[in-house]
Write a structure and sequence with these properties.
The complex is a heterodimer. Chain A is built from six helices and six strands. Chain A is of the alpha/beta class. The N and C termini of chain B lie far apart (about 30 Å). The chains are: A alpha/beta, B alpha+beta.
Chain lengths: ~325, ~120
């Protein structure tokens, strides 16, 4: 076998090996999307009931809760950027980072607010570390399968920062930059302001208001009179941090599903690319082989001719 | 007879949903039994065991962590960070944890381990 042919064979083998890896990663990612998606759906009953409870407790308390009060000074905002721990997911992490950069720009430009970054995921952390930029706090190691336990310390750090006085470095607003998962083909980076909280005091369903009577045609929600244990204020105090925890958890889950979807897509195009490359290389290898054969034949024919003419001449 | 429609929901899933005649739980103020016709209530739950007596079938026990309860028009919603049903707790493991907690744990840890074991073993005879 000629030298050229050997080169092609070697390259084909290497592309084949890469393709095996990318195919495997594609399959793993697509099975994980399903799992991540199921987790997102599984938290829905909790979120529904939690929001209802928050609305209910809020409607029984007077005055503003510190977590729902509008920003005091608007000097500083904190942002949580959710990225991936591992690469090979196309532009997934970069998109979130870029959105974070845009948010920083917006805050600085329009509202003269300083932005304190909090990071989830090794890729985002790497981006900040490489540029020697300060990070308030970071968490890594769970982005592909986040649990509620992972969300708790993050929520706590954000809440602490929010409740801190502005003069001491506290943030007046907290935003989350995460990737919302719509379906396998569509994920979008979104910015969500989680603090100060906006409590939606939902319109009560009629079954719940039957104690206060049916004359609720005015449209204002009327809640039945609840007994609170220990008190409405304390219940709300306990509920709101739970709500923040839930928001962080939900953002982590959405981002995890998006990460898997992005990885699956990236690996699929890598596999397709490997196929294409193999096709081209095989053609080139065939051509090289054919050229070699042609050359050999012409050498034989030439040699025979020379031999024949030499014999005839003598 | 009226029944309670109960939903037990954790952050991970909808743990149980169904009709019950009695729910026993502990709010921060103390143990409460909820039966059909209870007045509207909203409270924080102390970490610990709860009991649900379904209309059909045997009593259900669960260990609840960081929970809330809402009662309204015979609808009971139990919301908790984690919920462990009795069937999900390994008695042997719970015993070991209790022993470990008694050995070198804080008071909360001991109480948690006791509560879980109590849920797992069921009512004392």
């Amino acid at each position: 076998m000629g030298a050229q042919q050997r080169v092609f064979r070697r390259r084909i083998r290497s592309v084949q090996a890469t393709k095996k890896i990318t195919t495997a990663m594609e399959l793993i990612a697509s099975s994980r999307i399903v799992k991540a998606q199921q987790q997102v759906t599984a938290t829905e009953p909790y979120s529904f009931e939690l929001m209802r409870a928050v609305g209910l407790a809020a409607s029984h308390t007077k005055g503003k809760h510190p977590l729902t009060a509008k920003a005091r000074l608007e000097e500083r905002a904190a942002m949580l950027v959710i990225t991936a721990d591992r690469g090979l997911a196309g532009a997934y992490s970069m998109n979130a980072i870029k959105e974070g950069e845009a948010l920083i720009e917006l805050m600085r430009g329009e509202r003269q607010m300083e932005v304190v970054p909090f990071i989830v995921g090794r890729k985002g952390l790497g981006f900040y570390k490489f540029r020697e930029r300060e990070v308030a706090d970071s968490w890594t190691g769970f982005t592909d399968a986040p649990t509620y336990e992972d969300a708790k310390p993050i929520a706590k750090a954000l809440l602490d920062r929010f409740l801190m006085k502005t003069e001491d470095g506290g943030a007046d607003e907290i935003h989350i930059v995460f990737t919302r998962y719509f379906n396998r083909a569509r994920q979008e980076v979104q910015v969500l302001r989680i603090l100060p909280l906006e409590v939606v005091e939902e319109v009560v369903d009629t079954s719940a208001s039957n104690i206060t009577g049916g004359d609720n045609a005015g449209g204002t929600p009327v809640w039945p009179l609840y007994d609170f244990e220990p008190s409405a204020e304390e219940v709300l105090d306990a509920l709101l941090p739970k709500y923040v925890e839930y928001l962080v958890y939900a953002a982590l889950l959405q981002s995890a599903a998006s990460e898997h979807a992005a990885r699956q897509r990236a690996m699929k195009s890598a596999t397709d690319n490997a196929d294409e490359l193999m096709k081209t290389l095989t053609r080139q290898a065939n051509q090289a082989r054919q050229a070699e054969i042609t050359q050999e034949i012409s050498e034989i024919v030439g040699g025979a001719d020379a031999l024949a003419s030499a014999t005839a001449g003598s | 007879m009226a029944v309670l429609s109960v939903a037990l929901v954790s952050t991970l899933r909808n743990v149980w949903e169904g009709e019950a005649s009695l729910v026993v739980l502990r709010t921060l103020d103390g143990e409460t039994g909820i039966m059909p016709g209870h007045s509207p209530l909203m409270g924080m739950l102390a970490d610990g065991p709860i009991l649900i007596r379904p209309v059909q079938g045997d009593d259900m026990r669960a260990y609840i962590h960081e929970g809330f309860v809402t009662v309204d028009s015979d609808r009971v919603i139990l919301l908790a960070e984690t919920v462990e049903l009795a069937s999900e707790i390994d008695v042997r493991q719970a015993e070991d944890e209790l022993a470990a907690a008694r050995e070198q744990g804080t008071e909360t840890e001991v109480r948690k381990a006791e509560g879980r074991l109590q849920v797992a073993v069921g009512p004392r005879h």
